[in-house]
Amino acid sequence: MSPFMLTPHAALDRCREGGTRQLVLLSGERGAGKTTWCRSLADLAQEQGLIVAGLASPAVFCDGRKTAIDLLDLSCGETRRLAERAGFGTLETAGLGWRFDPATLAWGNALIKSAGACDLLMIDEMGPLEFSGRDGFTAGFAVIDACRYRLAVIVVRPKLMPIALQNWPQAQIVEPTDTV
Question: Residue 100 pLDDT more than 50?
């Protein structure tokens, strides 16, 4: 299945449509604008009075270098530090080059679990930790499968798309774009 381009405005139109619930897997390489796209969509949805639940993971830059990742509760704007770049010789989580804060991971999972019926559910992102079942936002699987949303947008890296599609074969693959 080939991805197609989708703007946040077009995704919001899908969210407003009645009928079947839609699951979108937003995919792109590092720096493709996935988190920016997610935040734009969440902002647009909230401006229009839609119920938004879920998480975004904005990067933190210092001197042009990505040094950390925050976790943003899209329903209220609360932010906590999710991960910091692991230094040379530092124990890393799953070989990903990041030290994840266990308390923030637990907070994120609790937020996902508590997501009730909503117009837009967003999880940025489900990656190697989640798909291996070892860590991360594993609560996302049950919440996605419960279908208590009109539109769910789940960020998944391209290399993990085959396993994501095994979990959700009905999902549409989308690449972020700001253009109409």
Answer: yes
The DSSP-derived string for the chain is: ---EEE-HHHHHHHHH--SS-EEEEE---TTSSHHHHHHHHHHHHHHTT--EEEEE--EEEETTEEEEEEEEETTT--EEEEEEEPPTT---STTSSEEE-HHHHHHHHHHHHT--SEEEEEES---HHHHHTSSSSTHHHHHHHHT-EEEEEEE--GGGHHHHHHH-TTPEEEEE-S--
* CATH number of the domain where residue 19 is located: 3.40.50.300
State which residues form the domain around 33. 4-176
Number of domains in the chain: 1
Specify the pTM.
0.89
pLDDT band at 3 (very low <50, low <70, confident <90, very high): low
